[in-house]
Amino acid sequence: MADDRLRGVLEALLVSFLWSSSYVLTKIGLRDTSPLLLVALRYLVASLVLVPVALARGAHRGLDRGTLAELALLGLAGYAVAQGLQCVGLYLLPAVTVTFILNFTPVIVLLINAAAFRRPPSPRQVLGSLVVLAGAYVFLGGDVWSGSPTGVLVTLASGAGWAVYLVAVGRLFARKPVEPLALSAFAMASGTVVIAGSAAALEGFAPITAQSAAIILWLGVVNTAAAFFLWNHALARVDAFEVSMIQNTMLIQIAVLSWLFLGETLTAAKAAGMALVLAGVLTVQTAPLRGGGRN
């Protein structure tokens, strides 16, 4: 169990790095591609990769209608709501504000577990969450609530959708022998239909450049199809709250990648914030490693 959990933690860390690199690639892709179109094409490519693989490997066998309905709902929460509304939030708000708001996701996970499943947070979980939020606040310079109130609400809804997805996936794996490949493929396909429909209705489809096409292919195959499979594989082994805390290390990774590839600066305040985020994540992660396994 301890080895399985360690593998899950390492998988989540790898995925967080891939998703952090998505930030740099998306910034480049958005120079000549509209936001919703880029997101829709990214998830369409990923679905076209995952669904045939899942069908060929027989991952759909044994899935009853109830489970398929659950996967469809997970796709709405984790992809259409979480990813789609995040895109809208980035349109309405500065990126720093969106980043800070999404750092509340572990707190929402704790609240869902406490309210729905009577699993009150441990003191270590509360402390780690507060340290991470403090680190994010320091990193982003304090001015994180500027912009549209609608954008704040939309981004909070995105974080809530992702928190629901994390908790629900963990509960699904605990109740049913669903393969991570089946979850990744069929839930993503459900969410992709909604995202693509929204993109068509709100923005339409326009020609894209060769550079954008290459970015979309990489994002779709590696940073979405492969990454979500590994992420769901990790969720079968690691508690949803811990996984969401690992995801918050993206703040550090994005800062380093942006410094290396986008020419953005790394200040002393950002370094201090990064140290606090890392300390908060380690506060949560070090204790369960002694006991091993999921909650």
Explain the overall architecture:
The protein has 295 residues and is an all-alpha fold. It has one domain. Helices cover 80% and strands 0% of the residues. The chain has twelve helices and no strands. Helix 4 packs parallel to helix 7. It is globular, with a radius of gyration of 18 Å. The N and C termini lie close together (12 Å). The C terminus is likely disordered.
Quick gist of this model?
This protein is an all-alpha fold and 295 residues long. The chain has one domain (2-291).
> What is the overall shape?
globular
Q: How many β-strand runs?
A: 0
Indicate the proportion of strand residues: under 5%
Low-confidence stretches: 289-295
Overall mean pLDDT stands at: 87
Radius of gyration: 18 Å
Overall SS class: mainly alpha
* N-to-C series of helices and strands: HHHHHHHHHHHH
The span between the termini is 12 Å
